[in-house]
Amino acid sequence: MGARANEPPGTRTAGDVVATITFDDFYHAHYRGVTAQLCAYTGDLGQSQDLAQEAFYRALARWDRLVRYDDPVAWVRQVAWNLARSRWRRLRTARNHLLRQRRSEAEVAGPTPDRVAIDAALAQLPASHRRAVILHYLADLSVSQIAAQEEVAEGTVKSWLHRGRTALAGLLDENTEGVSDG
Predict the structure, then answer these.
(1) Does the predicted TM-score (pTM) go above 0.85?
(2) Contact by Cβ (8 Å): 69, 9
(3) Buried-most residue among 36, 149, 164, 182 (CB within 10 A)?
(4) Cα distance between residue 148 and residue 86, in whole Å
(5) Angle between helical axes of 154-176 and 143-150 (0-180°, round to 10)
(6) Residue 171 to residues 67, 112, 137, 180, 182, Cα–Cα distance (Å)
(7) What is the mean predicted confidence (pLDDT) over 75-79?
């Protein structure tokens, strides 16, 4: 038989004296069981504990109504399972989004052979020459701007650029001997 209004299930005693169940008692009696069921479902104890905590938190907010249900733990269990399913949906959606991003990123072409040769040649230059060449040709800085940034005379920057270009020309000629135009 169902519970009467304002009466928790299974709390009637002989003579219809009603014993009330507190939320703390309910929580301590059922938390481990709900957590164990969720752990079997999700395979993750920590996540199961979080889901059970959330379900019991929601039960606490409705305890005045929930205590009158025939089986309040069934309500908590259903909420916990719904939370677990929502978690799986969110994870699946995030995974699918990441997979779509990776597929589109995989289509980006890699560096050309010329770019690889230039990077390798730049790596062989002394640091000061490399900085001067990069700042002048890639960052479009003038000789005076490079001199101010590097805190050297403009003549020094011109020397670095000349030596860097000469070394690059030699290094790139070595790298392109076996490369054909066609």
Answers:
(1) no
(2) yes
(3) 164
(4) 59
(5) 110
(6) 82, 17, 17, 17, 21
(7) 95
Which is nearest to 174 in space by CA: 131, 134, 120, 136? 120
In sequence order, which residues have a C-beta less than 8 Å from that of residue 180 and are 6 or more positions away?
none
Please give the Cα distance from 163 to 146 (Å, whole number). 15
**Pseudo-torsion of CA 75, 78, 83, 87, nearest 10°?**
170
Q: Is 92 exposed, middle or buried (0-12, 13-18, 19+ CB in 10 A)?
A: exposed
pLDDT-derived band at 164, boundaries 50, 70, 90: very high
Length of the chain: 182
5: pLDDT strictly greater than 50: no
**Rounded to an integer, what distance in angstroms lies between the CA atom of residue 138 and that of residue 124?**
17
Task: Name the pLDDT band for 14 (thresholds 50, 70, 90).
Answer: very low
Q: How far is CA 36 from CA 39, 44, 45, in A?
A: 5, 10, 8
Tokens (6 digits) for 148: 């101010």
